[in-house]
Fold this protein.
Amino acid sequence: MIKNNINKKDKIVSNSYDNGVDFIIISFDLPKFDYVRLCVESIIKYWNSIEHSIYIIVNYENKNEIDFHKQFFKDNPNIIILEGVNQKDNIIRKENGEVYLSSRT
Protein backbone atom coordinates (compact mmCIF):
# COMPACT_ATOMS: atom_id res chain seq x y z
CA MET A 1 0.00 0.00 0.00
CA ILE A 2 1.35 3.42 -0.95
CA LYS A 3 0.94 6.23 1.54
CA ASN A 4 1.42 9.67 0.07
CA ASN A 5 2.63 12.59 2.13
CA ILE A 6 1.17 15.67 0.49
CA ASN A 7 2.24 19.25 1.08
CA LYS A 8 -0.04 22.32 0.98
CA LYS A 9 0.31 22.66 -2.78
CA ASP A 10 -1.08 19.12 -3.31
CA LYS A 11 2.22 17.76 -4.58
CA ILE A 12 3.56 14.42 -3.48
CA VAL A 13 6.53 14.97 -1.20
CA SER A 14 7.37 11.35 -0.45
CA ASN A 15 5.97 7.84 -0.65
CA SER A 16 6.30 5.03 1.82
CA TYR A 17 5.92 1.46 0.68
CA ASP A 18 4.75 -0.72 3.57
CA ASN A 19 5.36 -4.08 1.90
CA GLY A 20 8.09 -3.18 -0.59
CA VAL A 21 7.85 -3.10 -4.36
CA ASP A 22 7.83 -5.88 -6.97
CA PHE A 23 9.22 -5.26 -10.44
CA ILE A 24 8.50 -7.48 -13.43
CA ILE A 25 10.79 -7.48 -16.46
CA ILE A 26 10.11 -9.52 -19.58
CA SER A 27 13.32 -10.63 -21.26
CA PHE A 28 13.44 -11.81 -24.84
CA ASP A 29 16.23 -12.07 -27.40
CA LEU A 30 19.51 -12.69 -25.63
CA PRO A 31 21.51 -10.37 -27.94
CA LYS A 32 19.48 -7.52 -26.42
CA PHE A 33 20.22 -8.62 -22.85
CA ASP A 34 21.90 -5.29 -22.11
CA TYR A 35 18.45 -3.70 -21.84
CA VAL A 36 17.54 -6.13 -19.05
CA ARG A 37 20.87 -5.51 -17.31
CA LEU A 38 20.45 -1.73 -17.51
CA CYS A 39 16.90 -1.94 -16.22
CA VAL A 40 18.02 -4.01 -13.23
CA GLU A 41 20.93 -1.65 -12.54
CA SER A 42 18.53 1.30 -12.56
CA ILE A 43 16.15 -0.40 -10.13
CA ILE A 44 19.01 -1.23 -7.79
CA LYS A 45 20.39 2.31 -8.00
CA TYR A 46 17.12 4.15 -7.36
CA TRP A 47 15.21 1.68 -5.17
CA ASN A 48 18.05 0.28 -3.08
CA SER A 49 16.74 1.81 0.14
CA ILE A 50 13.27 0.24 -0.29
CA GLU A 51 12.59 -3.47 0.02
CA HIS A 52 12.02 -4.87 -3.46
CA SER A 53 12.00 -7.96 -5.61
CA ILE A 54 12.76 -8.14 -9.32
CA TYR A 55 11.08 -10.89 -11.32
CA ILE A 56 12.63 -11.52 -14.73
CA ILE A 57 10.48 -13.64 -17.02
CA VAL A 58 12.64 -15.11 -19.76
CA ASN A 59 10.83 -15.78 -23.04
CA TYR A 60 13.37 -17.84 -24.92
CA GLU A 61 14.43 -19.51 -28.13
CA ASN A 62 16.38 -22.16 -26.23
CA LYS A 63 16.55 -22.93 -22.54
CA ASN A 64 20.20 -21.86 -22.30
CA GLU A 65 18.90 -18.29 -22.15
CA ILE A 66 17.21 -19.05 -18.82
CA ASP A 67 20.45 -20.49 -17.44
CA PHE A 68 22.35 -17.43 -18.70
CA HIS A 69 20.03 -15.11 -16.74
CA LYS A 70 20.26 -17.27 -13.60
CA GLN A 71 24.05 -17.29 -13.78
CA PHE A 72 24.35 -13.56 -14.48
CA PHE A 73 22.11 -12.52 -11.56
CA LYS A 74 23.05 -15.33 -9.15
CA ASP A 75 24.61 -12.97 -6.59
CA ASN A 76 21.49 -10.86 -6.13
CA PRO A 77 18.93 -12.52 -3.83
CA ASN A 78 16.28 -9.95 -4.83
CA ILE A 79 16.19 -11.23 -8.41
CA ILE A 80 13.99 -14.19 -9.31
CA ILE A 81 14.33 -15.72 -12.78
CA LEU A 82 11.18 -17.35 -14.16
CA GLU A 83 10.75 -19.45 -17.29
CA GLY A 84 8.50 -17.74 -19.79
CA VAL A 85 7.33 -18.94 -23.18
CA ASN A 86 9.33 -20.85 -25.77
CA GLN A 87 9.18 -18.56 -28.81
CA LYS A 88 11.45 -20.59 -31.07
CA ASP A 89 8.68 -21.53 -33.49
CA ASN A 90 7.31 -18.03 -34.01
CA ILE A 91 10.42 -15.86 -34.26
CA ILE A 92 11.60 -14.14 -37.42
CA ARG A 93 15.17 -12.80 -37.55
CA LYS A 94 16.05 -10.40 -40.33
CA GLU A 95 19.57 -10.09 -41.76
CA ASN A 96 19.95 -6.64 -40.20
CA GLY A 97 19.45 -8.12 -36.71
CA GLU A 98 15.82 -7.08 -36.24
CA VAL A 99 13.63 -9.60 -34.47
CA TYR A 100 9.91 -10.08 -34.99
CA LEU A 101 7.36 -12.52 -33.67
CA SER A 102 5.15 -14.07 -36.30
CA SER A 103 1.47 -14.19 -35.51
CA ARG A 104 0.01 -17.60 -34.83
CA THR A 105 -2.96 -18.47 -36.95
Notes: Residues 17-101 form one domain. The radius of gyration is 18 Å. The longest strand covers residues 52-60.
